Amino acid sequence: MTTEKKLLRVEEAAALLGIGRTRAYEQIKLGRLRSVKIGTSRLVPTTALDEFVSLLLEESRHDQAA
């Protein structure tokens, strides 16, 4: 079993994505960045980071084609 974290605090996820905490919460609210709630904590699965970046890349490709 790996000791690598599977869930990150929103602040940690935001730092890894290079965005601010407020922007991360905004993306969660919009449904663009997946998260889970455990008790009172909002956590972001590490897999959601790659999904979010892929979404941004796809949108960028779409915008360039338009």
TrEMBL record:
Natural source organism: Nocardiopsis flavescens
Pfam families: HTH_17 (PF12728)
Entry-linked NCBIfam families: excise (TIGR01764)
Domain Helix-turn-helix: start-end pairs: 7-53
Molecular function GO terms recorded: DNA binding
Protein's name according to its UniProt entry: DNA binding domain-containing protein, excisionase family
